[in-house]
Amino acid sequence: MTVTYADKPWLKQYDEGVPEMVEIPNHSLHHFLTEAARQFPGNPAIILKGNKISYRQLDEETDAFAAALIANGFKKGDRAVIYTPNTPQFVISYFGILKAGGIVIATNPLYTERELEHQLIDCGAETVVVLSLYYNTLKNVQRKGKTKVKRVIVANIKEYLPGHLKFLFTIAKEKKEGHRVAIEAGDMSFQDFLATGKRLPKPSVEVNGDDIALLQYTGGTTGVAKGAVGLHRNLVANTLMLETWIEWEYGKEVFLAAIPFFHVYGMVTAMIFSIAIAGSMVIIPNPRDQKDLLGSINKYKPGIFPGVPAMYNAINNNPDVAAGKYDVRSIRACISGSAPLLVETKVRFEELTGGTLVEGFGMTETLVATHANPIKGRNQAGSIGIPLPNVDCRIVDADMGEKDMPVGDIGELIVRSPSVMQGYWQMPTETANTLRNGWLYSGDIARMDEDGYFYIEDRKKDMIIAGGYNIYPREVEEVLANHPAVMEVSVAGIKDPNRGETVKAWIVKHPGNATTEEEIIEWSKTQLAKYKYPRIVEFRDELPKTTVGKVLKRELVKEHEAAK
User: Fold this and answer.
1) What is the pTM of this model?
2) What is the SS3 assignment for 390-402?
3) Average pLDDT for residues 13-29, to the nearest whole number?
4) Distance CA 394, CA 525 (A)
5) CA distances to 14, 290, 329, 397, 545 from 346, in Å
6) For residue 298, which phi and psi values (nearest 5 degrees)?
């Protein structure tokens, strides 16, 4: 019999105990924190460089933050921006805003003033929690007078460091690295703000699953950043869906929280998931700090490590790991997202850790995960895996999106899930284009095999059309990654007077490798159809990436055009 999408063949691939559906309660997102603090008040919720914050303290400080917001005129439905990397203050302000009935906007600390200004104007937030390192950038934007920002709360990274590290940071790094700032009149330090709240009654704002919790902005790499509207129940749903995928024990798990919380992937898989099961999150403010990351794995023995391929690759290629200086064998379950996971990365990481690294998939608009390879079952190379519980998927024609493609054929992936956003903030046309008849149109070109495994061939917008042929960069990248010289690779289309577009590959070689561009091109001719192989190869020391490890293809293409 012919398999159809309605048959949900992926259900046969589920690990034992994974249900087809999960019941989604209508409680608030911060209910997870309240419950963890009730059951395990003394357990560490957060660990930062040795300093432990218990669930009791986290619950009390989020209550205080909410109370201080309300006392300063913050009302249910108001928006508040968190402008910090992974820190305890991020977690405290996040759940504090929710307890006050507010809506969180988590902002990338690496944004330029232009990008920050756009987001602040668009969301209309009056409140910003900012790390002192980025305070001057925020003030420069605020002074232009185009935003509604009037309430600024300034956090310092050292506030939750243990005593000896706080002392060393104060004398050696705080001023030198730009963390010491003069807070202007009208603005308030994070600790003074908390102190205000601790003198006030516990907040009692009624919040349920149908209230808005989050405006999560898309990265803007394909145009103007759009705010995906996420309800409390959307985020609760995705957390509970993820819980089914990995075996865990309530109150006993340790998470490595290196993936940025300001990205919805890190927010859900590292922060919310950890709190939902009363776990301990080991916070890594700078995921590129290998000494901190590996030292934390060595010391705190995390079992769950959500991340991106660049993080796993960095560990794979770290000579101290290979030499046995760090013990990474506590890691047992990792879901990789945000970028394609190459087979070589997976195999090497699993050899080093003894754990399981699987590729998953999600979008800002689905808050966050919709697919993952089974932790125990069959991992299909090159596949994003199978739909999580409660998720329904189809592949439709990429032109109109109205006709189901035969199973195995390529088309646009569309998704239906209780975690899907409500729409884009103040963008009715974009919302209507993306959400149609209860389905989210992903913009990803994909296919499903007869066993229910899905494969992303590429973004609709990334597809290369060369001489009338459709070429999917990911396929070319997968092939080039098999060449022994290649450590990292990205492929995109560049303008060509004869073919319209042609294929270019940007490659980071393994150190000391002497392979030439011409040798790569000649080799690729033996691996790819004539119209697919790269006509141009450029070697680079590194590839430009977002903070969550996505290669900035548009940046590479822009650099190529500028160099002509």
Assistant:
1) 0.85
2) CCEEEEECCCCCC
3) 97
4) 34
5) 20, 19, 15, 32, 20
6) -60, -40
Q: What is the dihedral of CA 64, 156, 283, 341, to 10 degrees?
A: 120
Check if the beta carbon of residue 100 is closer than 8 Å to that of residue 77.
no
Q: Give residue-wise pLDDT tens across range 78-116.
A: 999 999 999 999 999 999 999 999 999 999 888 888 889
**Contact predicate 448/391, CB 8 Å:** no
Q: Are 286 and 238 in contact (CB under 8 A)?
A: no
pLDDT digits (tens, 9 = 90+) for 240-281: 999 999 999 999 999 999 999 999 999 999 999 999 999 999
Question: Longest Cα pair distance anywhere in the chain, in angstroms?
Answer: 72
CA-to-CA distance for 246 and 249, rounded, in angstroms? 10
Rounded distance between C-alpha atoms, residue 174 and residue 171, angstroms: 7
DSSP 151: E
Distances (CA, A) of 427 to 108, 341, 438: 21, 33, 17
Q: Which of 32, 45, 95, 46 is nearest to 285 (CA)?
A: 46
Q: Which residues contact 317 (CB under 8 A, 6 or more apart)?
A: 487
Domains of the chain (ranges; CATH) run 25-207 (3.40.50.980), 469-563 (3.30.300.30)
The residue length of the chain stands at 564
Beta carbons within 10 angstroms of residue 182's beta carbon: 7
Nearest one of 392, 27, 428 to 227, comparing CA atoms: 428
